[in-house]
Amino acid sequence: MEKAIIYCRVSTNKQTQETSLTRQKEELLQLANSYHFDVKKVVVERASGYDMDRDGIYELLNEIKEQHIDALLIQDETRLGRGNARIALLHFILKEQVKIYTVHHHGELQLSEADSMMLEIVSIVEEYQRKIHNLKIKRGMKRAIEEGYRPERNLKNIHVSSGRERKEIPIEEIIRLRQNNLTFSDIAATLRGLGFDVSKATVHRRYKEYMHNNLE
Predict the structure, then answer these.
(1) What is the pLDDT of residue 166?
(2) Is 162 a catalytic residue?
(3) What is the per-residue pLDDT across 75-117, written as a single tens digit (0 to 9) for each?
């Protein structure tokens, strides 16, 4: 059974809005039941849709990450937000491969042509920002090597083996890049640019091993 979260929002604390919240929750629970979703949480809040700094939104995004939610149920897309906030939240949620279902569409959200185009533009810009970031890292590492830096001298545990051969990775460089707030994905990309055949998972594992051994 797929896991779902319900999000209900109104913009004021007026009594008429309280009735709207109750109706939203009831309709969304019915929608969840019709699709046989396992509802993990119902998030209800009273806040402006133009505001990104909302407790309910933080709770929603955290649940999506922590509980590996499959579907988000809302009355309509304006409940998520309005203006740029709506586009930003749609982009994040869809990027997490969470399906959005609405009462308005009686099923999965149907994006307008304009919204689809906007989300595609946002994705393209984000991807190029990531590529530029990685290229800057690689150029910096290349310059450091040209100036005499030798990452292979930082290898640790070369002779330790448990089953399959342990990859040679410059752990001190991983720590340094991590301290510069690079993600494990960016660190792996940087090391691959230096000739190390390493994955994000391996970088993450070695980092955890190092931190564990040095914090004992």
Answers:
(1) 58
(2) no
(3) 999 999 998 889 989 999 999 999 999 999 999 999 989 888 9
Give per-residue pLDDT as tens, 21-31: 999 999 999 99
Tally of CA atoms within 13 A in the half-sphere of 29 that contains its CB: 10
Alpha-carbon distances, residue 102 vs 1, 76, 108, 179 (angstroms): 19, 5, 6, 42
Q: Which of 11, 20, 185, 199 is catalytic?
A: 11
Nearest one of 196, 96, 69 to 173, comparing CA atoms: 196
Spell out where the chain has E strands: 3-10, 38-46, 71-74, 99-102, 107-108
How many of the other CB atoms lie within 10 Å of CB of 53?
A: 8
Q: Are 151 and 145 in contact (CB under 8 A)?
A: yes
pLDDT at position 164 over 60: no
